[in-house]
Amino acid sequence: MEIHAAPFSSTVILLSLFSCFMLWPVVILAQQHNNQIDLMALLDFKASIQDPFGVVTSNWTTNTSFCNWSGVVCSRRRPRVTALMLNGFLLQGTISPSLANLSFLAYLDLSNNSLQGPIPDQLDQLRRLRYVNLGLNQLSGSIPASIFNMSVLTTLYLNDNILSGTLSNAANNSGLVMLPRLQIISVSTNQLTGPIPPSFSQCHDLQALSLSINQFTGTIPTELASLTELRLFYLGQNNLTGTFPSFITNLTKLTGLGLSQNNLHGRIPWDLGKLKLETMNVAANALTGPIPSSLANISTITLLDVASNYLTGDVPVQLGMNKPVLYFLNLQNNSLTGGLDFISSLSNCKSLRTLDFSTNELTGVLPDSIANLSVASLQRFYMHTNYIKGKIHPAFGNLSNLVSLNLWGNEFTGTLPLELTKLSRLQVMYLGNNRIQGAIPHEIGRLQRMVQLTIDRNELSGEIPDSIGNMSRLQALLLSDNNLSSRIPGNIWGLSGLLELNLSFNHLQGALLPETGNISMKSLSRLDLSANQFSGVLPNALGDLQMLATIILAHNSFQGPIPPSFKSMLSVEYLDLSSNSLSGEIPEFLSKLKYLTFLNLSFNRFRGRVPFGGTFQDISFQSLMGNEALCGESRLSLPPCPATPHSRRRSGVRLLIYILPATALPLLLVACFLCFTALRRRRRRRRRIGHQQGRSEGLTPIHLQTRLISYHELLIATNNFSEANLLGRGGCSSVFKGHLEDGLVVAIKVIDLEKAGAATSFDRECEALRMVRHRNLVRIISTYFGIARILLGDISKSVASASMPGTLGYMPPEYASTWRISTRGDVYSYGILVLETFTGKRPTDAMFAEEMNLRQWVSKALPGALLEIVDANLLRDYEHDEREAGFGHLLQCLLPITEIGLLCSSDSPMERISMKDVVPRLKKIKTDYESEVIRPLEQLAKFKE
């Protein structure tokens, strides 16, 4: 037996080896075939997109293996694509269905681009696909039902697109039974409608469900009570109805709850405090009843927002007990009653940064425990619009990091405590509409960072301290409706950044300006000095304030004429000089101020003719009454002005205006025809000479380099001016990207002739650009819409210029009404850019229509729904576990930088912070981020290695 075993074994081995060698070419051919499928799928994807940064177009070439292409990850064992990561490259175009041929694909991230069109139905063919992130694009259409057939899918991000349709239809087609491993799903910030599918309850491993900022309706399905693994539950900013879902108290692993801005009613469950919530935002609903006392038991909470509901009763005394990480508490705009004893428990909140219990019905006096609030962290303290009495507590002076203090609209008495002047970081202080008495302390000038100081509608007396002139960053000073006396300190006129000054309804007197007459506040937009005792003439220096939109000097004792320098105030819209002793004639130049819409000159000593045109076309008798000897139109109930030789000469001129055109028009037409003929001959002669020189010298004359492009070619180049090729919109035009037939890529600017002055503005721009050459300026190839001038006539004479100084979405709101360019407008644009950067949403996105814009969207989400609006790429390291070390620190960096964007983009220019303040804030955030996030992550990476 042993003798015959060896030959038999050798035979088997030989046959096996022979089989392997025979099959090896087959294996190689199959592998090459599969590689070719992956290659073709990637090339199809490349062909379906536009790549402004050239990441794909320059790197994805067949000269190298696709495993070395940017954003492509292959398996270690075989050259097959397992991951495609092209997030944040501003890719345009559509998602090619050919991606479904990447059969080994497990990770797909195309987020934070500008991809359009539908989500391909074929993605369900990718049986290995576990992670899909298509968020922060412009994808449209409905969510394919095939997505819910992907049995191994664990993570699905479709947020921040313009997807529509009902999620229930897509889900119910498959019943979600094929998503047994789903852990994270986010479809927030879309246009989805209909009810929330109860079938989500079948995803037993679901940990994060984010459906916020859509148009979902109906009630919250009770079936979701079975999602016992749920940690994040975000349904905010929808149209959901019904009562507060009581089953939430059974989701014992829940850490984030967002139900804000819906139509939920009923009470907050009394036992909600048994959860270990980290964020809870139920603001802007119709919730009633008291704040559950059990919320005091949640020691893990960082954000608690129950604002803008109908909550009643006392604030739980122990609300702030044992909350070491609470940084945001918002109780404002409810019907809460009782005293302020709960403030004592907040002394345990060592991380508290924002405390807001304004617009309620709270009473009593401020407790001494204010001194125990977190000195190191508290930045915003809001308690306006309540019924709080007594004196302003001097303990506020201990809150050294306070940035904003709002005590407006209470019943405070006593004097301004000197301790407030110790708050060196304070930028905004609202103390108006109280009963504060006494003088403004001279030490108030210590507040060097103050931006807005509002102490109006009180009982202050004495002088305005000249130390206010030391507040170099001040943008708004409101001291109206008090009993202040004496003169305006001269150095106040040196506050160069001041935008609004309101000293009305006091007892101020003397001349308006100091003897020097110098005014440095060139950015001043609103000046109200009415109802005082000012005298003397109106100073010429007021004419230097060319940004002034509102001037109210009524009810004083000013004398003399209106200064001729007022003609320089080109931005003025509202001018009230009534109830003074001004004299002389009404200046003709007032009719030339084209933005002036309100003018009141009543009860002065003006004489003579009322000017014609401009604001005088609509002026009423009430705005002119009470003067000495005005004359004018009968509609103003004024006597007619006597005829003068000058007026008779006017009549003769008017007659010539009608006679001369009829006589001169035939001669003018003949002259134009002769000039046109001569010019045409001259051009033909030059063209012949130019051709001859070009042929002889091998050059093309300059005037022949202008390229003529037909309208039909422009249509083809821009795909009928498709939105996909839209680069941006301005006040009077849109710019499209176009590909001409010869391969030249051009920018095509299309002006809107319905916008007044658009053609004039366009002509000026072209005239300027054609005269300059610079590496950062595009070259003008050709201009036309001359055709428009022929069809519509001389636009420059028929339409007044009304172009907007900015780009839609980034343009500050005051430009729309005043058209005044200022550094504060630039700050607004910067703020919008910051919000766009950290949310990944453009201000011109389709979701921001009607009354919603990017700033409002962010403002409503902060701070409770920060995770729902922030760019998902910033949270990528924590996408599987948001409780990792460093996540809280990351939020602490994202929140202040988003707040900077909101402060910069405030609707009111006076509320915007200056860039001098922005820079140190950003540096501090950067330092905190590096020390609290980057370094720990680097250490963790080294540990894993």
TrEMBL record:
MF annotations from Gene Ontology: ATP binding; protein serine/threonine kinase activity
Organism classification: Eukaryota, Viridiplantae, Streptophyta, Embryophyta, Tracheophyta
Organism of this sequence: Dioscorea zingiberensis
Pfam families membership: LRR_1 (PF00560), LRR_14 (PF23598), LRRNT_2 (PF08263), PK_Tyr_Ser-Thr (PF07714)
Statement: the UniProt record of this protein carries the keyword Nucleotide-binding: yes
Gene3D superfamilies in UniProt: Phosphorylase Kinase, domain 1, Ribonuclease Inhibitor, Transferase(Phosphotransferase) domain 1
Domain Protein kinase: 721-945
Protein's recorded name: Protein kinase domain-containing protein
Source organism, top-level taxon: Eukaryota
Keywords associated with the record: ATP-binding, Glycoprotein, Leucine-rich repeat, Membrane, Nucleotide-binding, Receptor, Repeat, Signal, Transmembrane, Transmembrane helix
Cross-referenced InterPro entries: Kinase-like_dom_sf, Leu-rich_rpt, Leu-rich_rpt_typical-subtyp, LRR_dom_sf, LRR_N_plant-typ, LRR_R13L4/SHOC2-like, Prot_kinase_dom, Ser-Thr/Tyr_kinase_cat_dom
Membrane-spanning residues: 12-30, 655-679
Topology of this chain in the membrane: Single-pass membrane protein
Alphabetical GO biological process terms: anatomical structure morphogenesis; plant organ development
Compartment(s) where it occurs, according to its Swiss-Prot or TrEMBL record: Cell membrane
This protein's GO CC annotations: plasma membrane
